Amino acid sequence: MNWNNIQLVFLREVRDQLRDRRTLMMVAVLPLLLYPALGFLMMQIMLSVTRQEQTVVIVNAEELPAPSLMTFLSPNDAQEALVVLTDDQAIWPAELELTKRERLEKLLTHIKDDETKIHHLAELKLADRTQSTTGDALAEAEIEQLRIELEQWFEEAKVEVIVIFPEGFREAYEAYTAQVTSGKSGVEIAAPKPLILQNSANDNSVLAAQKVKHAFQDWEQALLDQRLEEVNLPIDFVNPVPIDTLDLAEADKIAANVWSKVLPALLVLFSVTGALYPAIDLGAGEKERGTMETLLISPATRTEIVLGKFLTVMLFSYSTAVLNLVSMGFTFQNTLSAIGAVKDSPMGSLTFPPLTSVAWVILFALPIAALFSALSLSLAMFAKSSKEGQYYLTPLLMVALGLTMFCMFPGVELRPYQSVMPVVGPSLLLKSLLLDGILSKAVLTYGIPVLVSSIGYSLLALWWAIDLFQREDILFRESERFDIGLWLKHLLREKESTPSFVEAGVCFVLIGLLQYAFLISMQSSNAMSDAVSMMKVQTIYLIATVGVPPILMALLLTTNMFKTLKLQLPEWKFIAVGTILGFTMQPLMLELIHRIDWFFPPPPPGAVDMMKAMTAEQVPFWLALGAFALAPAVCEELAFRGFILSGLERSRRQWLPILISAMLFGVIHMIPKQMFNAALLGVVIGLLAVRSRSLIPGVIFHFIFNGTQVAASRMTSDQVNPKYTEWMFLIDPKTGEPGSFSIPLLLICAIISASLITWLIRTWTPEKPLDQFFLRRESHEQPATNQP
Amino acid sequence: MIRVEELTKQFEDLTRGTNIALDHVSFEVKPGEIYGLLGPNGAGKTTCLRLLSTVLKPTYGRAIVAGYDVSEQPEKVRANIGFMSNNTGIYDRMTAWEMVEYYGLLYGMKADQLNQRLEYIFEMLQMNGFRNVQGGKMSTGMKQKVSIARTIVHDPPVLIFDEPTSGLDVLVARAVLEAVAALKQEGKCIIFSTHIMREVEKLCDRVAIIHKGKILDEGTIDELIERHQQPDIEEVFFKLINELEASLSEKKVNPSESV
Description:
Helix content of chain A is 69%, strand content 3%.
């Protein structure tokens, strides 16, 4: 690799991007101008919102006991003020417009006429909330009519809230007070309740109602104080246990909590946006403008070109993320302090994050930007035109948004499993860093795994980009129109002996979708009620979702089903190797899984039930063996080592098909611990299948591997004769139960497995891909003779 | 300088299935010679030249360019050829000077040596007038000159031109042809594809007539005319193509002949 060339390509691309208005817009103009502008706009909106007038009408104000509610409804703070009107029109403000005055009058008469009905409506609505009582249908219709009318009156008179004091409220209140203060008891006096009418579909009405309710609370407190005074009780009588709350978090801690949720999410978002446009321009754009071929004929290798381009995309992704975050932070802080009104809320003390946090964000933007840059460059490389590139890259943005949401959930924290997930790992690590600083437990424990795995994912994505860039069909995809009809015809007409790469992918997606559909339908049915039916359902499930699709696809899409599904007899030595490996890998894998159990999140309850069902006494041994060993061995092998691996093998690479099929095999297992287990085994079985060119050794391996597990789980301790098994297990000194496997056994298994796998790797006899060519040539020999 | 043996390229195609774009083609080009590939659109000319420039990898056969095998030492091959075609565009946001300089640097030229070479080329091709004009603002003629400058900046011994005049106006096309002729005088080994008979007659020392991925015949123009007893190269061309088409349709009628 020539670093000089990488540097040359990098510098050229950067200069090119800087001369492009669109890029400058995204990277520099947007953060520097847009956010301050948005902040300004927000301030304006806030200011105009607070000035909006809210009208509250109080009906039957003469029923109010002293002290007057009015003083609480109109505090001195001008911004909070409501326009409060009572039904005493004499004291309505003189500046009230004539039309509004008329409408209010109309509203008041309406309400007074229908007062009892309105109270009835309120009762019905409240009853509705607790239990759905169906009363008189006719009355209900009438009431509903009234509700609609009220809504209209509110709208017409431009009133936000109406408070109705029922007739006799004051009398009842005073009677009650008199009764209590005189010390008499016995007669219950129930004061009718005042009613607040609001329309929650209108924000302004909600705000006004909130203010009215606050005023009611204060008023109630004043009335209570008055009553206490009359009976000569101290004011704190009704508050026997006064509480003080001390919030230990300081202002900057609260801020850190908020920032720790917001910053990682924004970082992910901006890294993607920043990578998107340069990637499309450098990948698909260059193809579209016809400069790609010019670059390809220069001595720079394709790896060098991709690296130069990758570094450019990463630079822009990174600077977009950092610039946007800094600019947004400043705007946010300034806007908040300018609005001022939010000062009392905990968000009000939201200061700009401290410099250390900023430094962490800047550092963690690197792995995230690297991953997204490599991914978007790959996708952009794959696209034929800029437009196509945008289509391919939008899903990436969606995925990033999803991950962002995930990181923002409260309570989502770094765990071993999360730490090695792409994007989620660094985001959550950043979250802990912002919250607890560098010396927190999470950072010290997971810092290195997160960084190593992030670098790993970035390298993988980069490798993909380089690989795509080596492929002629990707680089020179002529602008051949994609026609789905044509494509389907092509699929069915021009069948080949084994499936294509794409068909293998489709098979996997189909299996995934079927499994998903099956699981959803199972959730609602009660087919899983007991252990036996659970086993039966599990078997049917495997056959239907994993076993059938590859067979059907092989029949439909290929000419040689036996070759596709590898249904041919292998050499005997491969069968022997599969059998031996099935036994020797078992203790090794169990031990490994046992050792790294802490790494994975606990399995979902459904999976635990399934494991219990496997060992349940009422399940006959053959059924458990069928559901957990035979069905998976046959179905999963048909799918993953049969159809999918055959399709992947068309790439004519040695290891890639095995690794991808193993990975897909892992993914389909869904539960993290099983995913790991299956992926690892998938590599071994894949190797067996590729080398033997047959499914049979893999099926045998799979059956033995699962079968011994089923057998072991059903063995009770009295069936085990310690004489024969003591060499296998280390006996737990406390319980006397067999624990993990004994070291000598593990060693023997490891040596046998390792030597067999090494042997498998070494027996490589590549097929001759060019044979068909010579044949073709013979048949086409010289159609026209040029010699006279 | 260029030696091609049994060169074959096969593509997978949605509409046609497996498609053989180049079918066991062999020829040789010497220094100081212009070798013409004459064929209709889709004959396999571009595929052949892309294989020679290592942008595509051969399915079968081999090609030695400037002493290096295209499959084994593609970087060496690319460092020793100049390649120009319709598809080798120039960057919109780069000036003429920057563009040619960039490629000179990619070819590993030292700064002062490159500067001298650039001054010489810009003078020779009369490009000083638009030295600092960006690609997006150039006329077709200017762009073509930049492409030629880019092709010869590292003074390669082998030059490959893939329909360099297609889509150009007459004046620009003439200038391009003159530049190619001048390069021959410098002793370069040149391969030149086109579907225009006059260009072949004027420029090429030897011609290969190519159709459906096969070379139907090759030789000097006089040899071809004499061998096929036709008045001019155009008639030779159509005669060969018609013969091939006829034999192919015959095969379709009697599929038993082909396996």
